[in-house]
Structure formats: C-alpha cells, structure tokens
Write a structure and sequence with these properties.
alpha+beta, lyase, glycosidase, hydrolase, Ribosomal_uS13-like_H2TH
C-alpha cells in the first residue's frame, strides 16, 4: 500500500507539473467503487475549466486544490493507486508489474488534460483507491479524523511521550492507527521500530524515556529519508530493514541484516518483520503475577473452608484431608505455572506465530510495500 513517502511523491509530481494550469478536458471512468458520490459526468463537469491551485497531502490522503469556491479533488491511493504524468518517468512499487508508456495508461480512473498540454492520470489496478469531490478537505472527514503527520506536524518529544503513556496497545498497531499517526503503514512501521530498536509487541505505555526519544527521532528520520529519496527504494540506505524484509513465506535460509536474523510474526493482524537480537521485548507491567498471587490466596482460603466443615468424626477425615491438601498444592502449583505464560511458552508461541506470518505473507504477496525504479 502506498504510504506517506509514496503519496508525497505523487503530490510532488502534481505540484511540479500541474500547479497553476487549467483543466481543459476531464475524463472519468464509470467505476463507482473508486469514484464516490458523483457520476462520471458530474465529476467531469466539476473539473473542466478549473485551475489547479496546488496539490496537498496529509497522511495517505492527497487532494488538488481548485480555484474559487470549488470543492477539492480528493484522492486516497488505496493499495495500488498511483499518479502519472504523460512522458514523466515514475517510481514503481516493489514487485509491481512494469508500467507501459501507453496513454491513457492502463487502469486509469481519471484523466485530466490541461490547457498547455500536460496530461495527468490517476490509475488503480486493484481498485481500492478512492476519488471524491470534497469541500474544505482539511476540516472534514476523512482528513479531519487523522492524527499528526510526522512530516508536517510531528509533536515535540514531551507531547509525544505523553501520548504514548496513555496507550495500552502494542506499539506497532498504535503506529498503524491513522488517528494516531497519519501516513505510517506496515513497512514504515517496521523500519521505524527496527531503527529505534523497539520490539513491535512492546506496550506503548511501557516505553522508557530513552525508547520514547528513539521512537520520536526515528519516526521523523525514517519518513524524511524516504521522502527525500522520492520514495525510490533503490535510494534508501543499505542498512535499512526494508531491503531484506520481504522474505516471509519464502523457502531457503532466513534473511539476515548485518549478521542478525530477521524473523516474522503477526502483530495486530499484520505481517511484521523484526530482528530479535536488537529488538528485545522488555519486561512490562507486572499485572499477571499479581493476579496469580490473588488466585493462590483464594485457593488457600477455599482450602481452609472444607477443613472446617469436616464431619464430626475426628479419626476418619485424616486421610482424605491429607489427600485434599496434596491435591490443592498441585493445583496451586499449576496455577502459578499458568500465571507465567510468557516464560513457559514464549518459544512455542513465537514459532506458531512465525508459521502464521509465513503463511499469511505467502498467501498475500501483494502486501509488500515501497517503491523501486
């Protein structure tokens, strides 16, 4: 899926080639899954004769600001959407099929031609993108519901740390929540956490001061680096996890990064690449041990009750009582073991999770993100 760097590259493309130009001709595909709220004819009529004042972006959304009081043309690129200007080389997503030079391009949904001959098209092979007319987009949904954009409005460290302290979720699902941080997608989240040396399952509220600072720095650094590269993955630093993370579900030796093994698991329903040697899951709030102690106390209390209610015969209850105590001790021991699932079953759970991640990635190879030339 196009993430913040890819959408910013699309915005820059439109800004560079179409800003200030008048739309002379507009053609819209008859595709109600992609084009929302208006018919092709209505969209075409709304765009003809309008001047593109500029292109804007927040998170994974971008829009064309039109002159006057006209509504903006809002885009969400979905999983495979992209912008193309005729005759201008474009950066492709990782593993995407090579795009031809024909015009209009394959999979086009909207084609705009300006008065000076510049032609712009939005294409979407898998049709998960959205196009709509939206008045005052920044102050209306969906953009008004977005969280901070790490490039446009990254909060200061103190504010950011305070935001994390209120979150009980694991840090990766939190980063993917667009109402928290707009524009961060799967590959960007993995890269940020790898560079910050934070385990994807670490609870956000449990991050210490140094981890909060590292996460704050890497959110801006990773995204700014990708944006400066024009979302061209060939220009990403060679030390990035991005270049080695696409091995989930593939046969052969596990990929490595600087000598360290890359592993995969499901976190928040998303295939996640991480490096266990560097991204260690630190001890978190000791809620489970407290619960275990309470259970043990309750068990002891319950054990004491039947002892008081034993039959009046004093000699007979001795043997049953001894058996009961032994059984209760075994149960208490089992309860204590059950209260420590992390220590007892971490390896097995990781293995099971890795298997699930491999199957998921093998079944859905289109989840690979990023771009390359």
């Amino acid at each position: 899926m196009p993430e913040l760097p890819e959408v910013e590259a699309a915005r820059v493309l439109v800004h560079t080639h179409c800003k200030g130009k008048c739309i002379e001709q507009a053609i819209a595909a008859d595709d109600t899954k992609v084009i929302e709220g208006v018919s092709p004819e209505e969209l075409q009529n709304a765009l003809r004769g309008r001047t593109i004042v500029d292109a804007h972006r927040k998170g994974k959304h971008m829009w064309l600001e039109l002159d006057g009081e006209n509504p903006a043309l809002l885009f969400h690129l979905g999983m495979t959407g992209y912008m193309v200007v005729e005759g201008v080389p474009i950066v492709q997503y990782v593993n995407a099929k090579k795009r031809g030079d024909e015009w209009p391009p394959k999979y086009w949904k909207v084609v705009l031609e300006t008065d000076c001959g510049v032609k712009l098209a939005f294409c979407d092979p898998r049709r998960f993108g959205k196009i709509r007319l939206q008045a005052d987009p920044e102050n209306n949904e969906p953009i008004s519901k977005l969280g901070f954009d790490p490039i446009l409005s990254m909060p200061d460290l103190a504010t950011f740390s305070g935001m994390l302290a209120k979150q009980r979720r694991s840090v990766k699902p939190l980063l993917l929540d667009q109402s928290f941080s707009a524009g961060v997608g799967n590959w960007v989240a993995d890269e940020i956490l790898y560079q910050a040396k934070i385990h994807p399952e670490q609870k956000a509220a449990s991050l210490d001061e140094a981890q909060c600072a590292a996460l704050h720095h890497q959110m801006k650094a990773v995204l700014q680096t990708a944006v400066d590269a024009g979302a061209d993955s060939e220009k990403f630093p060679k030390t990035w996890l991005f270049h080695q993370k696409w091995g989930a579900g593939k046969k052969g030796p596990a990929p490595r990064l600087e000598g360290n093994k890359i592993e995969y698991m499901q976190v928040g329903g998303r295939t996640t690449a991480y490096v266990p040697a560097l991204q260690k899951l630190k001890a978190q709030a000791a809620e489970k041990p407290k619960a275990a102690k309470k259970k043990a106390a309750d068990s002891e209390t319950q054990a004491a009750v039947p002892a008081v209610k034993q039959p009046r015969k004093r000699a007979a209850p001795k043997t049953p009582k001894a058996q009961s105590v032994a059984a209760e001790e075994e149960e208490d021991g089992a309860s204590e073991e059950a209260a420590k699932p992390v220590k007892k079953s971490t390896k097995k759970n990781n293995a099971d999770t890795d298997d699930q991640a491999n199957k998921a990635e093998a079944a859905a190879p289109t989840k690979k993100r990023g771009r390359k030339t």
